[in-house]
């Protein structure tokens, strides 16, 4: 009896077909990029972590660039990467020769990447692109440089952000306070906090000064107050850690006092952004990235400058900017720098509706700068307040362990022991001094 | 339909069977390899070797090096293990995970068993109860964590609201070092119970009815039937659930990350959370790999220990 055999492929034929299919599948991405590349414009790959309301404005900026360059053979492809995974993904991509062309960075936090050659020095590229460095504030250019790496610029500054207090105007009216004369020093800040705090017995149910019991907020509060009191995480020459430790200890006691003595804050808040948005707090220091979100939410609020709590009025300073990542084809740098130059030159939208103050003098001098975008009563403190924003990052290899705006670094974990009553301020300061000194010694 | 397998020419001739076993195989038959089989197995084996086996060996190697992705790993010997043993946060994370296991494993086992016994009675609404008990397991741990953050909120959470009726003062489930571990455990028990429940229910339905009926005829009440018949019959499944749950709890991460981020003051941190922070946030892959190896060893020891403590057979 003969069985039909036509439907059953031979082993040899099966292997051939399987090999062909596998080969085609593996080659598809390569073919897609290479074979058809001749009729495609240059595509600049840009990674960003901006995902909140500021992310929408940034996406608009990229769209504006692409619209303006439709016929010029260059387009930007924006890809979103979660912030906490950002550095790891950039490092992995760079190690495999697949790094994006440019991305967002924070000044002073990328010394390790500068050392490893993952981010590219920009001085020559900036001059070749025609980007006018003299239009940038001196502070922003200074913050873009890494003194330990030939003092080269590794970032094009895009926005200057400071931490300033927001004020819930409904709570202010309820407490009979004058919103035109917000607190200016530690005593008036505590008085305002007391006036707006609500309690049931001994339990704070609405924080006059919104805090959390752990994480970023108490850490950054300590950092600001400590620096105001004269504490320095590292000396100016980056050789000695924890200068004026006494001031650092006093600042820890001040933060503890908010919970335990003045009782104007509770440790029970878990999500500070949400808590302020739903009225669980009256005064909340945060960055300009929250403004458009709260506006959309319909929250009745205004901003004012960080009071002088410790002796010298200062607040935390963070500069966002664009970094170029190492490429296997150096020919891409020129096109990427051209895109970055355009974004910087056209950053009026970003620094009025997105976040932060403009680092460009020409934008600050624009007569429309105060009236465009988010209303000035909400945005103004973040622009004018840059004058007191002088607490920067520490530009060393272990820079992230020094940042006061962190919820999980060495500083935050050490301080959490104090907030939880496990360590004394003195013990915590001794640990900080020892740990930071080791970090500074590494370079 | 396998026409070529049936080949009358290759059938053994009469009386040839015995001699065939004795004769040496033909050289062409030895060389004949069924490559199609290897190709089919390769679709699984190659990715398994590349994505599972190789990373284990590479991770072990990295544990003895200093490596931050860029550049070649630099051999540092046992330095990462020394750092791990000296780091109080590592010790704290391992201590926490043992406490997690002490709360979550009995909680999941007892509640899962109770729920299975309840549903197995086939009382009215048993089908609905079966769905409700299993439903949390289908939801991702991240969603469970986010829901429980609100449920356990000190000021506005439902849990504190209801225990308030019993005259109990609000508990800072997630914001105090004393309670954060319990808060995360509650969410984990609620999430993990679904799998234990379904395994116990399947085991209960496998118990022959005549055994329990015979016991009833002999005068055994529900407690006696449970203790002398049902639980011994379920011993293998109970053992398996406890072992799986211990291993799962040792690897706890998502709930911790979403609900407390390990805080306050590391009171709810777990080894995987520490590994995540070391690797992804600080890019210290050597230390992260060293702690991962330590965790692996602890899990091996605990799992083997459990084989003696909770034996499947008496």
The total count of helices of chain A amounts to 18
Mean pLDDT of chain B: 87
How many domains is the backbone of chain B divided into?
1
Percent helix of chain B: 55-70%
Output the CATH homologous superfamily of chain B. Answer: MetI-like
CATH class of the largest domain in chain A, anyone?
Answer: Alpha Beta
Tally of strands of chain B: 2
CA radius of gyration of chain B is: 27 Å
Number of helices of chain B: 15
- Multimerization status: heterodimer
User: Low-confidence segments of chain B, ≥5 residues, pLDDT <50?
Assistant: 1-6
Instruction: Determine the CATH topology of chain B.
Output: MetI-like fold
* Helix/strand class of chain A: alpha/beta
Task: Describe the protein in words.
The complex is a heterodimer of chains A (443) and B (314). Chain A is of the alpha/beta class and 443 residues long. Chain A has 18 helices and 15 strands. In chain A, strands 1, 2, 3, 6, 14 and 15 form a six-stranded mixed sheet that branches. In chain A, helix 9 packs across helix 10 and helix 17 runs antiparallel to helix 18. The radius of gyration of chain A is 26 Å and the shape is globular. Chain B has a single domain, classed as MetI-like fold. In chain B, 69% of the residues lie in helices and 3% in strands. Chain B has a two-stranded antiparallel ribbon. In chain B, a hairpin with a 1-residue loop joins strand 1 and strand 2. In chain B, helix 5 packs parallel to helix 9, helix 5 packs antiparallel against helix 12 and helix 14 packs antiparallel against helix 15. Chains A and B meet through helix 1, helix 3 and helix 17 of A and helix 3 and helix 14 of B.
């Amino acid at each position: 009896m003969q069985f039909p055999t036509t439907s059953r492929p031979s082993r040899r034929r099966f292997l051939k077909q399987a090999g062909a299919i596998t080969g085609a599948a593996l080659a598809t991405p390569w073919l897609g990029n290479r074979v058809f590349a001749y009729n495609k414009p240059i595509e600049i790959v840009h990674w960003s972590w901006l995902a909140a309301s500021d992310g929408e404005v940034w996406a608009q900026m990229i769209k504006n660039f692409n619209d303006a360059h439709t016929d010029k053979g260059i387009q930007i492809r924006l890809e979103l990467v979660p912030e906490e995974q950002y550095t790891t993904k950039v490092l992995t991509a760079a190690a495999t020769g697949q790094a994006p062309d440019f991305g967002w960075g924070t000044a002073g936090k990328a010394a390790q990447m500068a050392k490893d050659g993952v981010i590219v020095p920009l001085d020559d590229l900036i001059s070749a692109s025609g980007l006018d460095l003299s239009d940038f504030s001196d502070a922003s250019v200074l913050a873009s440089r890494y003194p330990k790496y030939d003092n080269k610029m590794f970032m094009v500054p895009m926005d200057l952000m400071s931490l300033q207090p927001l004020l819930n105007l409904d709570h202010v009216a309820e407490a009979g306070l004058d919103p035109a004369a917000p607190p200016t020093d530690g005593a008036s800040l505590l008085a305002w906090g007391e006036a707006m705090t609500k309690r049931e017995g001994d339990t704070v149910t609405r924080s006059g000064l919104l805090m959390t019991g752990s994480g970023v907020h108490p850490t950054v509060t300590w950092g600001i107050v400590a620096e105001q009191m004269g504490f320095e995480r590292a000396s100016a020459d980056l050789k000695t850690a924890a200068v004026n430790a006494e001031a650092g200890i006093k600042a820890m006691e001040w933060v503890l006092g908010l919970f335990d003595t003045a009782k104007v804050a509770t440790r029970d808040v878990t999500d500070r952004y949400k808590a302020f948005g739903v009225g669980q707090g009256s005064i909340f220091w945060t960055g300009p990235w929250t403004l458009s979100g709260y506006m959309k939410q319909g929250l009745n609020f205004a901003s004012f400058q960080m009071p002088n709590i410790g002796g010298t009025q200062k607040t935390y300073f963070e500069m966002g900017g664009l970094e170029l990542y190492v490429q296997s084809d150096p020919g891409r740098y020129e096109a990427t720098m051209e895109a970055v130059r355009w974004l910087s030159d056209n950053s009026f939208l970003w620094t009025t509706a997105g976040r932060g103050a403009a680092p460009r003098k020409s934008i600050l001098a624009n007569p429309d700068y105060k009236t465009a975008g988010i209303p000035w009563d909400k945005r103004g403190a973040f622009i004018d307040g840059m004058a007191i924003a002088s607490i920067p990052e520490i530009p060393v290899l272990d820079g992230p362990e020094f940042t006061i705006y962190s919820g999980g670094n060495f500083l935050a974990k050490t301080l959490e022991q104090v907030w939880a009553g496990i360590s004394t301020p003195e013990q915590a300061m001794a640990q900080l001094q020892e740990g930071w000194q080791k970090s500074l010694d590494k370079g | 339909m396998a026409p070529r397998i049936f080949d009358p020419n290759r059938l053994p001739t009469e009386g040839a069977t015995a001699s065939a076993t004795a004769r040496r195989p033909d050289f062409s038959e030895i060389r004949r390899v069924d490559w199609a089989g290897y190709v089919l197995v390769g679709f699984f084996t190659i990715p398994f070797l590349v994505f599972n086996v190789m990373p284990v060996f590479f991770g072990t190697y990295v544990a003895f090096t200093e490596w931050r992705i860029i550049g070649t790993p630099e051999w540092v010997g046992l330095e990462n293990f020394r750092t791990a043993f000296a780091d109080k946060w590592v010790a704290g994370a391992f201590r926490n995970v043992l406490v997690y296991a002490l709360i979550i494993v009995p909680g999941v086992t007892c509640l899962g068993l109770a729920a299975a016994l309840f549903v197995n009675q086939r009382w009215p609404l048993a089908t609905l109860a079966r769905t409700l008990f299993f439903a949390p397991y289908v939801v991702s741990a991240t969603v469970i964590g986010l829901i429980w953050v609100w449920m356990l909120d000190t000021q506005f959470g439902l849990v504190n609201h209801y225990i308030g009726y019993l005259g109990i003062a609000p508990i800072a489930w997630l914001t105090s070092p004393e309670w954060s571990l319990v808060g995360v455990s509650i969410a984990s028990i609620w999430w993990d119970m679904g799998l234990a429940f379904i395994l116990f229910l399947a085991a209960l339905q496998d118990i022959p009815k005549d055994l329990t009926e015979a016991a009833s005829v002999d005068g055994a009440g529900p407690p006696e039937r449970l203790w002398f018949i049902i639980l011994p019959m379920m011993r293998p499944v109970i053992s398996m659930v406890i072992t799986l749950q211990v291993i799962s709890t040792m690897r706890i991460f998502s709930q911790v990350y979403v609900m407390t981020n390990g805080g306050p003051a590391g009171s709810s941190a777990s080894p995987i959370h520490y590994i995540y922070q070391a690797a992804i946030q600080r890019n210290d892959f050597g230390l992260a790999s060293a702690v991962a190896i330590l965790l692996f060893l602890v899990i091996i020891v605990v799992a083997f220990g459990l084989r003696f403590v909770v034996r499947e057979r008496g």
